Amino acid sequence: MVPRKLLILGGTGFVGRSLAARWAAEPAAAGSSIVVPSRRPTRGGALATLPTVRRVAADVHDPATLERLLEGVDAVVNLVAILHGSAAQFEAAHVVLPQRLAAACQRAGVSRLVHVSALGVPDGDPQSAPSRYLRSKAAGEQVLRSAPGLALTILRPSVIFGADDRFIRLFARLQALAPVMALAGADARFQPVWVEDVAAALVRCLLDPATAGRVIECAGPEIWTLGQLVRLAGRWSGHERPVLPLPDWAGRLQAGALGLLPGEPLMSGDNLDSMKVPNVATGRLPGLAALGIRPSSVGAVMAPLLAGGPTDADRRRAGRA
User: Fold this and answer.
1) How far is CA 209 from CA 137, 156, 204, 213, 229, in A?
2) Sign of CA dihedral 3, 4, 8, 11
3) What is the rounded distance in angstroms from the CA atom of residue 177 to the CA atom of residue 166?
4) Is 269 exposed, middle or buried (0-12, 13-18, 19+ CB in 10 A)?
5) Structural domains of the chain, with CATH
6) What is the distance between the alpha carbons of residues 97 and 105, in angstroms, rounded to a whole number?
7) Phi/psi of residue 24, each to 5°?
8) Where does residue 183 rank: exposed (0-12), middle (13-18), buried (19+ CB within 10 A)?
9) Given CA atoms 120, 121, 123, 128 in this order, what sign does their dihedral have?
10) How many Cα atoms within 13 Å fall on the side-chain side of residue 190?
11) Where is the NAD-dependent epimerase/dehydratase domain positioned along the sequence (predicted)?
12) Maximum alpha-carbon separation in the chain
């Protein structure tokens, strides 16, 4: 049963744009439509080139609006997430929104939901997690799992990289400017996953109802420390700088100073708390291989990209050729 109308919450973001493009090009989904609500629908401008995508101005945090958006919908993908914020902001994005979404789905008769969470989320007590981010993500998962009537699939990705990421590319740009990289959390471990592999996993889950009831870990083929990834980003972009690991106290001072700058901070104290949990697959749950996806390594994608090579979209088109 292929969804004929798909609602993507958070669809103007990094993963949402890739998912919309993949779904629009998926032969099995031919004739289906995609609705992408946003308070700023002009974001995600690339979506305008997809004829099956309709961007609408809407606040998905409003219960009545959510219910209207769900009219005639066959499946929902929830990508809404924040990395920085207060306890109240994390609660609103990661717990209250899933609560409202589950209730709205029940009232609208929509049962299929694919929810994107994160690696490092505890399966037990949410309060056992060390950060507001992970605690709120865990609580959001529990909300959805306890909702009656939902055919729920949860994806837990590691840090996601790609042409438009705010991770590998950001560290590459910083090294073009700074003579040395003073780095908090340098020993934190990650298993980076390509945005196109995450999008492919979402498509497979939407097409396969047997994935309902499962939690799937989305991780790349390699485990790296943050310090190693920063050095690689500099090397691939031609601006490799020495990495100076900071002790925890100095990292927290740095995070506090970054938080005073305008815009989204590069690193926060809560990020440092999240990095106490390795952001790697546990191996206890199915991974991308269970969906028939062989994940790409960060080097295979980002090394040519940072050197001016093909973008994610180029690679996606080549994969369909």
Assistant:
1) 24, 18, 9, 9, 36
2) positive
3) 16
4) buried
5) 5-159+194-219+281-294+312-320 (3.40.50.720)
6) 12
7) -65, -30
8) buried
9) positive
10) 24
11) 7-213
12) 57
Q: Which tokens hold the place of 94?
A: 């990661």
CB 220, CB 192: distance < 8 Å: yes
Q: Answer whether 316's CB lies under 8 Å from 163's CB.
A: no
Calpha distance 240→259 (Å, rounded): 26
How many residues are listed for the chain in this entry?
321
Quote the radius of gyration of the chain (alpha carbons, Å): 19
Pairing mode of beta strands 189-190, 224-225: antiparallel
Tell me the Ramachandran region of residue 292: left when phi exceeds 0, alpha when psi lies from -120 to 50, beta otherwise.
left
Query: Terminus-to-terminus CA distance in the chain, angstroms?
Result: 26
Q: Which of 175, 184, 196 is nearest to 298 (CA)?
A: 196
* pLDDT of the chain, 321 residues: tens digit per residue: 799 999 999 999 999 999 999 999 999 999 999 999 998 877 777 888 899 999 999 999 999 999 999 999 999 999 999 999 999 999 999 999 999 999 999 999 999 999 999 999 999 899 999 999 999 999 999 999 999 999 999 999 999 999 889 899 989 999 998 899 999 999 999 999 999 999 999 999 999 999 999 999 999 999 999 999 999 999 999 999 999 999 999 999 988 887 776 677 788 899 999 999 999 999 999 999 999 999 999 999 999 999 886 665 555 555 554
Tokens for 10?
């958070």
Euclidean distance between CA atoms 42 and 48, whole angstroms: 9
User: How far are the Cα atoms of 81, 98, 182 from residue 90, in angstroms, in the given order?
Assistant: 8, 12, 28
